[in-house]
Design goal:
The protein has about 325 residues and is of the alpha/beta class. The protein has 10 helices and 10 strands. Strands 1-2-4-3-5-6-9-10 form an 8-stranded mixed β-sheet, sandwiched between helices. A two-stranded antiparallel sheet has the order 7-8. The chain is globular.
């Protein structure tokens, strides 16, 4: 699967924003009548609706927040995958994973995090990760009648942190929505955090944002070029508010009690974003039944690694 090489113009993005209706789980989208959405799907090479697959989508409104929400539903569904993307990502970048999940007969639910993609909010910013969890809960409620059991949570990086936060804060495991969690390079603690957290504390009063550095976090050169030069939803400044919220999450996951829930962690050993060795040791203490799959040569952006590595990564998902 290849992303389109033509640009998605700002005018088309605004056309798409204007054309999206409130999310309705009872009404599938007619992409032939929605040129903005069709251009979006074509640009990111995302699956379209077909005779054996329905596509639902639109904005989910709540708490002064508009969330882009999309659901691909096979005619015969064996379960549902709730996909939570990583920081600075969005639904459009997850076509490889969406296609893989659909090939397994799963209903696939994707949404853009607050401040990402087509969702509203200050770009790439958040005050507290609890806002992400509230957004996830809203998505689960809004899509409930489309979601065939069992439900599987899949999170890349920050998406993994959101799923972990929801899990460790769940008071009643009988009402916990997920049968499994697959966490791809979950955000627990970033690399060099011991030093960087002090530098951040010293400089935060004087810097509200920092320039983004585009790193080679995947071996897929075409993906890296697309992110840096083509994708219209990529921010170039990183708000300090998000770093502060992440710092609170890092403290929370370090202080939480252990849980018997058997998470499935997939981690690349060439990850330059996370302190992944420390993270694995911590997660093994907090989740003693954790399953770990270490992928030699894989970077941080596991969902968008090069094809051979990506095939190996997706084969380790527990829902298979």
């Amino acid at each position: 699967m290849h992303r389109a090489q033509t640009n998605l113009e700002a005018q088309q993005v605004e056309q798409l924003r204007d054309s999206l209706q409130p999310f309705d789980p009872k009404t599938a989208i007619d992409i032939h009548a929605n040129t903005g959405l069709r251009a979006y799907l074509d640009f990111y090479s995302l699956p379209k609706s077909s005779d054996n697959r329905a596509l639902f989508g639109g904005y989910l409104n709540g708490d002064d927040q508009q969330t882009l929400l999309m659901v691909w539903q096979p005619a015969v569904s064996v379960g549902t995958a709730i996909v939570v993307h990583g920081y600075l990502d969005h639904t459009g970048l997850y076509g490889h994973l969406i296609e893989t999940l659909l090939d397994r007969g799963l209903t696939v639910v994707c949404y853009d995090l607050i401040g990402h993609g087509l969702s509203s909010g200050q770009p790439a910013s958040i005050q507290d990760f609890s806002q992400y969890v509230s957004q996830l809960d809203q998505v689960l409620n809004a899509t409930a009648e489309l979601c065939t059991a069992p439900l599987h949570g899949l999170g890349q990086s920050t998406g993994g942190a959101i799923l972990l936060k929801q899990l460790i804060e769940c008071d009643n495991r009988e009402t916990y929505p997920f049968a499994s969690l697959d966490l791809l390079a979950p955000l627990v603690q970033p690399k060099h955090w011991g030093l960087n957290r002090w530098l951040f504390a010293l400089t935060r009063p004087f810097r509200k944002t920092a320039k983004r550095v585009f790193r080679a976090n995947s071996q897929d050169a075409a993906f890296l070029h697309f992110i840096r030069h083509i994708d219209p939803f990529q921010p170039h400044r990183l708000p300090s508010d998000w770093i502060s919220a992440m710092a609170e999450w890092v403290a929370q996951i370090h202080d939480c009690t252990s849980t018997p829930f058997a998470i499935n962690v997939i981690q690349g050993d060439n990850d330059g974003t996370l302190d992944w060795q420390h993270n694995i040791e911590l997660l093994q203490r907090k989740f003693p039944h954790m399953r770990l799959h270490l992928i030699p040569g894989a970077g941080h952006q596991l969902v968008n690694e090069e094809a051979t590595l990506r095939q190996e990564i997706f084969a380790k998902l527990s829902l298979y």
